[in-house]
Write a structure and sequence with these properties.
Layout: E1 3-9, E2 20-24, E3 30-34, E4 41-45, E5 50-55, H1 58-63, E6 73-78, E7 89-98, H2 110-115, E8 120-123, E9 132-141, H3 152-155, E10 158-164, E11 170-179, H4 182-199, E12 207-215, E13 221-229
Parallel strand pairs: 1-8, 7-13
Antiparallel strand pairs: 1-2, 2-3, 3-4, 4-5, 5-6, 7-9, 9-11, 10-11, 12-13
Length: about 250
């Protein structure tokens, strides 16, 4: 069975993150991508248990700076690494969005049309100022588990959406607030300074966006969307894919 969940942070017609999409193929493989870069880069959570974060083709990987012959995979892992203790659930992947993800969309771009879709769950409740973000976690149940999503009390999270998979398991996207570690927060700001040195300071509505990939000690892999803008009230740090740091206390 196929399904799809779309979400983002902010005002779809104003300051916002990109639109993110989680969906399943008829074979039961699950994919996570940022719509703005979905033709080049995505997370694949295969029904076999193998997961990876990779460019879509070797040619794209080479153009993005991967070494010749190095392939297209940035990182791979086993799905069981994210299993929750004493629960029939796995944390398959997470997307971290916060004030550091917000920027103004370019007027009239194709991404704008995607962002105003009726089926995108836009969270306009922004995290508190400072080192906070909403973590959107993709949870996969064991086959045969009831379709009711984990509730606030069980997971400390709010359901964003979900659907059943071919093998009788269920997928949910859950949202909860996290506080970034002091080191993680500093790393994001240092990355913003690096981006400005390499690309030049953004002017006007220009927004630099990138994805920062990382992992936690409990096996959860995540990606943080980051943006650098010219607006001093909303600094947004950036770091290239592939760096692995711990963001969350």
């Amino acid at each position: 069975m196929t399904g799809v969940v779309r979400f983002g942070l902010g005002d779809p017609e104003g300051w916002r993150s990109s639109s993110w999409r989680v969906w399943a193929s008829p074979k039961g493989d699950v994919y996570v991508l940022k719509r703005a870069t979905g033709r080049t880069l995505k997370v694949s959570l295969h029904a076999s248990g193998q997961s990876h974060y990779a460019f879509n083709t070797d040619e794209i990987a080479l153009a993005a700076g991967m070494r010749p012959g190095g392939g297209r995979f940035i990182m791979g892992w086993d799905a069981e690494e994210g299993r929750l203790v004493d629960l029939p659930l796995r944390q398959a992947f997470a997307v971290l969005l916060g004030g550091f993800s917000l920027g103004l969309p370019p007027s009239g771009s194709p991404v704008d049309a995607e962002c105003v879709r009726d089926d995108v769950e836009w969270v306009e409740d922004l995290p508190p100022p400072g080192p906070y973000g909403w973590q959107f976690t993709v949870l996969l149940s064991d086959p045969g588990i009831p379709t009711t999503p984990p509730g606030r009390q069980a997971m400390g999270a709010v359901p964003v959406g979900g659907f059943p998979l071919m093998d009788g398991s269920n997928l949910w996207v859950m949202r909860h607030l996290v506080r970034l570690s002091e080191q993680g927060w500093e790393n994001l700001h240092e990355a913003a300074r690096v981006a400005v040195r390499e690309l030049g300071r953004p002017t006007g509505p220009t927004v630099y966006r990138s994805d920062l990939f990382g992992s936690e000690s409990d096996g959860l892999r995540w990606v943080a969307e980051v943006a650098v803008t010219a607006e001093p009230a909303a600094p947004a740090p950036q770091l290239a894919p592939g760096a692995v740091i711990s963001l969350v206390d």
